[in-house]
Amino acid sequence: MKKTLLATAIAGALGASAAAQAATVYNQDGTQLDIYGNIQIAYKSVDNADGNSEDEVFDNGSTIGFSGQHIINPGLTGYFKAEFEHEADEEKVNGGINDGDQAYLGLKGNFGDVRLGSWDPLIDDWIQDPIGNNEYFDPTDSSSDLGGLYGGSLADQVDVDREGDKLQYLSPVWAGLQFAIGTQYKGDAEEEFGANNEVTGVSSQGSNASFFGGAKYTIGNFSLAAVYDDLDNYGLHATEEATGRTLEYEAKAYGLTAQYVIDTLRIAAKVENTDATYAGEDGDILRYALGARYGYALSDNFSGDLYGNYQYIDADKEVAAITNAGGVNNSGDYVGDDSFNEFVVGATYNISPAMYTFVEYAQYDRSHDEGDGVAVGAVYSF
C-alpha cells in the first residue's frame, strides 16, 4: 500500500481506512504526540522477466508511525513525523522493524511550511497519486523510470533514493493557488548514484543538488497541478567495459495533472514525461493517463472503493529500455516495443472502520508480460 489513508480520504468519507485515527498519547501545553500504524499482509502472483508466474504471501508495507507538534508561538508551530516498516508476514525471521519510510521535521505558520528530511517526491504527491495510488499495483511513472535508468550491471552498483536528504518550502494557499520549491542534496560522501566515486568506472556528473518545484490551483471541486524535477544529482558517467567508452545517464521529469472530485467520485487525467539520456542516447518517455476512484456504500455494512487507471506510454526507441528492461536481448541491444498500454483495476471492501480487504489486477504490456498479475490482501489500520 502506498498511501491508502490519503487515497481514501480524497475519494470520500466512505473510503476503507478513512475512519482510522491516530492515537494521541500526549496533548498538553501546546505539545501533542500521536502514534499510528497498520498491518498489511497480502498474496500476489506476478509474471517475472521470463514470463513465468511467481507467487508469495508478503508484507505490503506494514508501518508504525509517530507524529508530533509543538506550538512555539501563535504564528509558528514545530512538527515532526517518523515512520518505520516491518515485515508482518515473516516478523520473527526478519527481526522486527527493519526499514524506514518518511521521517522529517519542520516549521509551519502563516508564512507557509518548511520541511527537512525524507518523504515522497512532490511529483509523486501532486502528479502521480491522483491517477494511481493503489494498494499494490501502480501505473509506471517517472519515479519508476529511475529504477531502470541505470541498466544492466550498472543498476547493481548504484542506489536510487528519491525521498531522502530533501529541503522544501510549501506556500500558503492564496485564492486557490499554492506552490512548492525544494532541493535534494547528495554530498560528495554519499554512496548514492556513485557520488563518492568509489564504484569502479562510475562517477557523478558533478552536481550535488537537484531542484524541484510545482504549482497547484484549486477552484471548487477542480484542481490542476504541474511539477518539474531536474533530478540533477542522478547524472552519472559510466565506462562501458567492452569498448572503454564513457556513457552518460541522466533524466528530468515533469508532468501535469487535472482532477475533479464530486461526492465520493474522483476523476483524474495526467500527462507526464521523463526526458532521459540512457547510455549516451537521448529520448523521451511520454505518459498519458486516466484514473478514477469511487467510494461505494450499498448499506451500512457493505462499503468500500472501486478504482481503475489506464495509461498509454509513448517512448523513444533510444530510451525505451528504461521502462521495458525485458526488451534488451543477450547482446545488449533493445529489440522490444516503444509503446505500451497499462491498466490496473481494483476494489476494496470495508470489514470495519479500521479494517478492509482488497483485490487488484494489472497488465503492463511489457515483454514476456513482465509485471502482470493479481494481488489480494487485508489491512488493519490504527
UniProtKB/TrEMBL annotation:
GO terms for molecular function: porin activity. Residues 1-22 form the signal peptide. This is Porin. GO terms for biological process: monoatomic ion transmembrane transport. Residues 8-368 form the Porin domain. It is a multi-pass membrane protein. It holds the Pfam family Porin_4. InterPro entries: Gram-neg_bact_OMP, Gram_neg_porin_domain, Porin_dom_sf, Porin_gammaproteobac, Porin_Gram-ve.
